[in-house]
Design a protein that fits this description.
heterotrimer; A alpha/beta; B mainly alpha; C mainly alpha; B: mainly alpha; two-stranded antiparallel sheet; 22 helices; C: mainly alpha; flat
Chain lengths: 321, 501, 156
């Protein structure tokens, strides 16, 4: 009967197309590799994940794709990535949030649930004021803060956000007492400072990039080891006698227990991808600093940053809710 | 550079064959996305972004922006046809648009929506071109106190959204505020009303709520009848707006454009507020407000115009300061940065071809969208003829995928079903959904702004009266609150005078 | 209409009070220094207050009688209920069975089980819809759907 044949053809096409979509061949990578981005599409880290995918795919047979698992400020995605099978088919995009959030939220996945694969970008931190601000340099701000406790308003990306943490540490170091006004993310926080709704803001370079270039924000101090080439006139915290170095970073992690052969293939692939000029150019244009830290260097780096942030959180009395 | 040569530069960029193609692709995808309920432009833009890495900056933005304002055109389609908003900004269009469809006037509704969007788009671009640098400062000047007062103004508009009882509208608004509070406390970070469910930690997302309140509940209501045929109850009358329609829609379109554009500049939700505000204002200024809710074309013309004008307004802070007003703008910002052309005050000078090229391309895009959408009206109207027993599973399917697509989490489907049931009950007992949605969006923003302001002012409430924009908003809110009482007071006075002799 | 409101307004009032309670638990603070529960508490109280006014209205003010006997009479409650149950079941099995399988069966049920249609029509419509959805959303828009049981078959 005509209808029967039509019908069975449809079924056949269905089954055939589904099968074709799933054919697999030889060694690693055999099937698709998912790179979990624990946030909704569109954020800086998501863009980084997609950029990475584009550059690393030529070295991994084009198997990598981005999977967004957003929710709970990243907890859901991070958790998914940490407990995935350690067969090299699940990578997770890691960002500094995984170190700040556990200080504020109970049961938030921690960075040590992962086996670090590499760090691919860094973002040094700084404190800025709006261009018309009454503080011409950092010393004026410090003097004011010391003499007027609680009068200096500082916008932050949220309670327990990284900038909150390091600025709180900075406040203690200079003997001052800032009033923190939480916003929803670094974007709104920097805009608020530029608009004069807060006197100062802490952020990574990339987060304040447009406003800095557009001369709406002026950097007062950078929290790095040496002065930045982009802001040669801005002193480092260290120069002022306050040893505070905080770096925002983005990297990739694997579930613990991934076999060495697989890990080596991945490290090589990412190393080559991030060494490409195009990639470096793209990263710099986002305001980030390209860097490549393989597992043996990434591990200690992550640990030192995490301990630093955790220590600050405890000192200022943050309790996970 | 003067305006004329700027436009010349812009069009010479925008009219390059490849860029025309990109523009078309962008608006086409955008329309598709807009029509599909739930899935918004941000997802599509995020996915297409890597594809745009290798093309010049101008072309990349042409495509991506095309998706954005294209989606605004398409969003009204499902609102009118099946009472399901294509995205949050189209919620208000459902109210009268759907009623028009049921009366066989889906064509005029879709038509006025397309034309209004076109007029808003073009006007918005012109306003953008002329006023952008001066307006940019407004975006920066909007801080927590200004936000708070604006939200207060927005909430007073709730009163005008309800069709029946004002008490019920206010009750729904209160409930909406509470629903909006579910999730992390915006200032302190502790979980509120989450009952330990991790999926609720980020709060209840708007899309599943809308899908449930409007989509699922509508299907449930229709399933009550013993036999359903089609959606519309009378025969289909005409495909395009009549002259009478145009007469009635002219002023709403004009008001909607201005309202939408200026509200769109406000970062963080101005554009969303625009459509609600437009509806409330049209109802207030209408000579026959009782018609709203039964298929008044002003209730479609105004909001849909405001929507599209809002998208142009949202571009202002992005292009002039590098401040994104919403998720889509943030994506465009990222795209601009990746291409080495960070937006900001220097963009217009350092890359005039980029700035004016984008504007010119948007003008082109609006024309393309009009050409795309008008013929489609005939096709959309045919959908209404599909028997409901085939149509309803499709509607449900769209709602399911729309809800799931937000977080790729099944919990959102459950949330949608919950609100579906709630929406059904609300329809039965005559409670309006629009106030709930508006309050759901505005409530948390209001609370955050209030608490932020109080932190800065160290507890002083005067901060709301000291800032000019804030003061203006509060006074306007007061006026809007008092207005409906005036006829009431007049009647009482007349009575007293009559009795007093 | 007014009689319906009588009972529902009481429900809303109770909900409002419960919400206020939850707000209270979260700590109120003052207007000058609001804490987590401030807005929630007062909104809950407002809801309860409004519901009470509604309740009073339903007792005294004569509203327009709708001409309908009652809003629950004469309706086909079976179809709607079946649909909701099916959708909940869908949500439950979605992850384990995967998009393709669970959607196919759901569509089959919706096309056939709610309103009577011929088997063949239902099957064809279900398959076509399912394939189109998968292609448009899954492949073109790259939404990630769970593969469920099919992953076992095809080793994805």
């Amino acid at each position: 009967m005509k209808k029967n044949r039509f019908f069975s053809t449809i079924l056949a096409i269905l089954v055939l197309s589904l099968t074709l979509a799933n054919l697999a061949w030889a060694k690693y990578p055999e099937k698709k590799i998912r790179l979990i981005a624990a946030f909704a599409p569109g954020g800086g880290a998501d863009i980084m994940a997609r950029a990475l995918t584009k550059f690393v795919n030529p070295y991994l047979d084009g198997r990598v794709y981005v999977e967004n698992i957003a929710g709970a400020s990243g907890a859901i995605g991070f958790r998914e990535g940490a407990k995935a099978a350690p067969d090299g088919y699940t990578l997770t995009m890691l960002v500094t949030t995984i170190m700040s959030a556990p200080n504020v939220t109970k049961n938030f996945p921690t960075y040590d649930l992962f086996d670090p694969l590499c760090i691919v970008a860094q973002d040094p931190t700084m404190m800025s004021v709006r261009t018309e601000s009454r503080f011409k340099n950092i010393n004026e701000l410090i003097t004011f803060a010391k003499g007027n406790p609680g009068q200096l308003s500082v916008s932050t990306a949220g309670v327990g956000a990284i900038d909150h943490l390091y600025l709180a540490a900075f406040a203690k170091m200079i003997g001052g007492d800032f009033t923190f006004v939480p916003y929803k993310g670094a974007g709104p926080a920097t805009v608020a400072a530029a608009g004069g709704h807060a006197e100062a803001v802490g952020s990574g370079y990339s987060e304040a990039f447009s406003l800095l270039q557009g001369k709406k924000l002026r950097p007062l101090v950078v929290f790095t080891n040496q002065r930045s080439s982009i802001f040669p006139d801005t002193p480092t915290g260290k120069e002022l006698g306050h040893d505070l170095v905080v770096v925002l970073w983005r990297g990739v992690g694997l579930p613990k227990g991934t076999p060495k052969e697989v890990k080596d293939i991945l490290v090589e692939a990412f190393r080559k991808a991030t060494a490409e000029e195009e990639f470096k150019k793209m990263i710099s244009q986002m305001g980030l600093q390209p860097i490549f830290l393989p597992p043996d260097e990434a591990g200690p780096f992550l640990k030192s940053q995490n301990d630093l942030l955790k220590g600050i959180a405890q000192k200022i009395g943050l309790v996970p809710q | 550079m003067d305006f004329l040569s700027a436009m010349q530069l812009g069009f010479s960029t925008a009219l390059q064959p490849l860029n025309i193609l990109y523009c078309f692709i962008g608006v086409f995808i955008g329309t598709l996305i807009g029509v599909l309920p739930g899935i918004g432009p941000s997802g599509a833009i995020a996915i297409l972004m890597p594809v745009t890495f290798n093309i010049p900056s101008v072309s990349a933005i042409i495509i991506l922006a095309g998706i954005y304002y294209g989606a605004m055109y398409g969003g009204s389609t499902t609102s009118i046809l099946v009472n399901i908003p294509g995205e949050a900004a189209s919620v208000v269009t459902c109210i009268d648009g759907y009623q028009m469809a049921r009366k066989g006037r889906a064509g005029p509704a879709l038509g006025i929506s397309a034309f209004g969007s076109f007029i808003a788009g073009i006007s918005g671009i012109i306003l953008l071109a002329v006023l952008a640098p001066s307006l940019a400062q407004i975006a920066l000047d909007f801080g927590p106190p200004e936000f708070f007062s604006l939200m207060i103004l927005g909430l007073t508009l709730v009163i005008y959204l309800g069709s029946a009882s004002m008490i019920k509208a206010l009750m729904m608004a209160a409930f909406g505020v509470v629903l909006g509070c579910i999730g992390q406390d915006p200032i302190l970070g502790n979980p509120r009303l989450t009952y330990g469910i991790e999926a609720l930690f980020d709060g209840v997302d708007l899309i599943p709520v809308i899908m449930g309140l409007f989509g699922i509940s509508e299907v449930l209501i229709n399933l009550e009848k013993k036999e359903q045929r089609e959606i519309y109850e009378t025969e289909i009358k005409g495909l395009l707006p009549t002259r009478e329609d145009w007469k009635q829609s002219a002023k709403p379109i004009a008001r909607g454009t201005l309202l939408g554009f200026f509200l769109g500049i406000v970062p963080g939700g101005g554009a969303l507020l625009a459509s609600f505000a437009s509806y409330a204002i049209e109802k207030k200024f209408s000579k026959h407000p009782e018609k709203f809710g039964t298929g008044a074309i002003e209730g479609v013309a105004g909001p849909e115009t405001a929507n599209n004008a809002g998208t142009m307004g949202a571009m202002v802070p992005l292009l002039t300061l590098g401040i994104p007003s919403n998720v889509v703008m943030a994506l465009l910002l990222a795209a601009l940065m990746i291409h080495g052309t960070p937006p900001g005050p220097i963009l217009i000078e350092s890359h005039p071809d980029l700035f004016w090229g984008i504007l010119a391309s948007m003008i082109l895009g609006n024309f393309l969208l009009l050409l795309l959408n008008l013929p489609l009206i005939g096709m959309w109207v045919q959908i209404l003829k599909v028997p409901y027993k085939v149509l309803s599973p499709l509607i449900i399917m769209f709602c399911l995928i729309g809800a799931y697509s937000v977080h790729l989490n099944v919990v959102d489907i459950v949330i949608m079903l919950f609100f579906g049931g709630l929406g059904y009950l609300m329809k039965k007992y005559e409670y309006d959904a629009a106030p709930l949605v508006l309050a759901f969006i505005l409530g948390p923003m209001l609370e955050t702004a209030l608490r932020q302001s109080l932190i800065v002012s160290h507890g002083s409430l005067y901060i709301f009266l000291q800032r000019p924009y804030s003061l203006i908003s509060l006074i306007s809110a007061l006026i809007f609150l008092v207005l409906p009482l005036i006829p009431f007071i007049r009647k009482k006075r007349k009575k007293l005078i009559a009795e007093g002799g | 209409m007014q009689r319906n409101d009588r009972y529902t307004s009481i429900l809303w009032a109770i909900l409002g009070l419960y919400i206020a309670y939850e707000g209270y638990v979260l700590k109120l603070g003052t207007l000058k220094d609001p804490k987590s529960g401030f807005l929630i508490f007062w909104t809950g109280m407002v809801l309860a207050g409004l519901s009470f006014i509604l309740f009073l209205q339903s007792l005294f003010i004569a509203g327009p009688v709708n001409g309908k006997k009652g809003i629950w009479e004469g309706i086909e409650w079976r179809k709607g209920t079946k649909m909701m149950i099916a959708l909940f079941a869908y949500a439950l099995v979605f992850k384990s069975l995967g998009f393709i399988v669970s959607t196919f069966f759901l569509l089959l049920f919706l096309f056939k089980g709610i309103e009577p249609q011929k088997w063949k029509t239902a099957l064809v419509l279900s398959s076509v819809t399912m394939v189109v959805c998968y292609m448009v959303f899954g492949l073109f828009l790259e939404l990630q759907f769970p593969s469920g049981i099919l992953s076992g078959l095809f080793g994805q």
